[in-house]
Amino acid sequence: MAESTPQPIEQSPAHLRHLQNAVFSSAILRRKGYIIDPLTKDDLERKKRCSRCSKALSKKDKEELVPTKKHLKKVKEVGDKSRGAGYAAGPRGETALEGSFSLLGVNTAKGEANGASRPPVNDKDGDKTGREPLKRCRYHSGVVQAKMWTCCRKHVSAAPCCQDDNHLPIQYAPGEIEANWLFYRTPQSGGRNPQQSFAIAVAIDCEMGVSDSGESELIRVTVVDYFSGAVLLDSLVAPDVRMKHYNTRFSGISRQDINEARRRRTCIFGRSNARKAIWRCVGPRTVIIGHGLNSDLLSLRWIHPFIVDTMLIEDEIVHAAKAGLPEDPDQELNEKQKGLLEISKTPLSLKSLTLLRLDRHIQLKGQGHDSVEDALASRDLLHWHLVHRVAPESSSPAPSTGGWTV
């Protein structure tokens, strides 16, 4: 359960200054994997996935994708999971599989003539155990029904029952990847009445499921005002794509929950509308706070310049503590170094940090995550740091470059 009565935080000039100084620079965010610019052609190329195992295809995967007669035969056997459709003949009379290889620059004629295929990836214990060596593409050929795979009648968590030397790339429609991975910057107005002001700072948390193509998809979004603790937005989000599962164990959201919300029209329909809902209370200079916020912004396809990530704060503190320890692990530690050693072992999960810093239990076993609870936890965790460890001073109005220390 989320904290029922969050304590308000005083909106003093000093606190505002510390909050602004806590914002991470674009250089740090880029280094930590945040998307701060639209994706390049190479970035988009890395988003292509296998239609069977949903693995993102690496450059090496694509270089070694050489189809054989065996793979071309499977065109009739394997449906495109991302769309739930069979592989029909496409332009120029090519099959969808051939088209996929063509898009990746693979010569299908050469592959058939030479019968070439990538050697299987050997299980390091394969020779000793007599088991069949593991191959590159490992997957279930069926679908999940009542938490069981139809192909092998095993639980949804069971290891893949099928494998193949090569991946089977999804054949994307022209512009499909570009449209799916288009990122949007926070607009000036956000659709609000010009007379209304945006929140100074908010804490955000999202829950995600997994689409049929293997991508993380937004299924719930929560926005909490940093100073008042008021919930500004909390809604389920019905994805625009077919879903493999809703990560119910962790998200606390089931397929039935989403279907019921769709029927009653009590949810937000699609990530585009979710962004618009957020932008009604978040402006281009609003500070947004979260724990591991990168994944939330990624699911929203959103670029924002003022970010405070409590996971990065804790990570900087842990690294600073490790830097203060002697290189020789056998060297006897003084009292200060013993303290640094303890700090260096600090866990980075929101659940562990909330208990450590705030003495509060969240994400209780069996209940899944509550995005309101998690947003409030990241808000209070940042407040704890601003009270106990003042944010590094910035020499200019631009976001600071970090510098959280022990």
Automatic annotation (TrEMBL):
<dbReference type="GO" id="GO:0003676">
    <property type="term" value="F:nucleic acid binding"/>
</dbReference>
<protein>
    <recommendedName>
        <fullName>Exonuclease domain-containing protein</fullName>
    </recommendedName>
</protein>
<dbReference type="GO" id="GO:0004527">
    <property type="term" value="F:exonuclease activity"/>
</dbReference>
<comment type="function">
    <text>Exoribonuclease involved in ribosome biosynthesis. Involved in the processing of ITS1, the internal transcribed spacer localized between the 18S and 5.8S rRNAs.</text>
</comment>
<feature type="region of interest" description="Disordered">
    <location>
        <begin position="110"/>
        <end position="132"/>
    </location>
</feature>
<dbReference type="InterPro" id="IPR036397">
    <property type="entry name" value="RNaseH_sf"/>
</dbReference>
<keyword id="KW-0540">Nuclease</keyword>
<dbReference type="GO" id="GO:0006364">
    <property type="term" value="P:rRNA processing"/>
</dbReference>
<keyword id="KW-0269">Exonuclease</keyword>
<keyword id="KW-0378">Hydrolase</keyword>
<dbReference type="InterPro" id="IPR012337">
    <property type="entry name" value="RNaseH-like_sf"/>
</dbReference>
<feature type="compositionally biased region" description="Basic and acidic residues">
    <location>
        <begin position="121"/>
        <end position="132"/>
    </location>
</feature>
<dbReference type="GO" id="GO:0005634">
    <property type="term" value="C:nucleus"/>
</dbReference>
<keyword id="KW-0698">rRNA processing</keyword>
<dbReference type="InterPro" id="IPR013520">
    <property type="entry name" value="Ribonucl_H"/>
</dbReference>
<dbReference type="InterPro" id="IPR047021">
    <property type="entry name" value="REXO1/3/4-like"/>
</dbReference>
<dbReference type="GO" id="GO:0000027">
    <property type="term" value="P:ribosomal large subunit assembly"/>
</dbReference>
<feature type="domain" description="Exonuclease">
    <location>
        <begin position="200"/>
        <end position="391"/>
    </location>
</feature>
